[in-house]
Amino acid sequence: PASPSDLNIIWPMILCGAGFGLFQSPNNHTIITSAPRERSGGASGMLGTARLLGQSTGAALVALMLNQFGDSGTHLSLLAAAILATLAAVVSGLRITQPRVQA
Fold first, then answer.
1. Is the pTM of this model over 0.85?
2. C-alpha distances in angstroms, 74 versus 59, 69, 79?
3. Residues 75/63, Cβ–Cβ less than 8 Å
4. What percent of the chain has pLDDT over 90?
5. Which of 22, 29, 66, 78 could lock onto 73 through a cystine, CB 3.0 to 4.6 A?
């Protein structure tokens, strides 16, 4: 809507915050524990670096799209994000079905 109510802004933010909160902790745990114990510090550093790089790149790309495409920039930014999220989900799904190789 052109001028949404406070409630129409708050409930999606709560939903996103809950989703991110429920995802982030188990995801971090899985990433850190998949590294050898002596390299967990490096894995943690790479996790933080990748997260910051993704956030910075995403914000820059959204700003670029809003600047280049004007009014349709919002729609195109969300469409691009949905496509990338779907691609990431497919890649993650492919990893689930692959058998683990024992070292």
1. no
2. 12, 8, 9
3. no
4. 50
5. 66
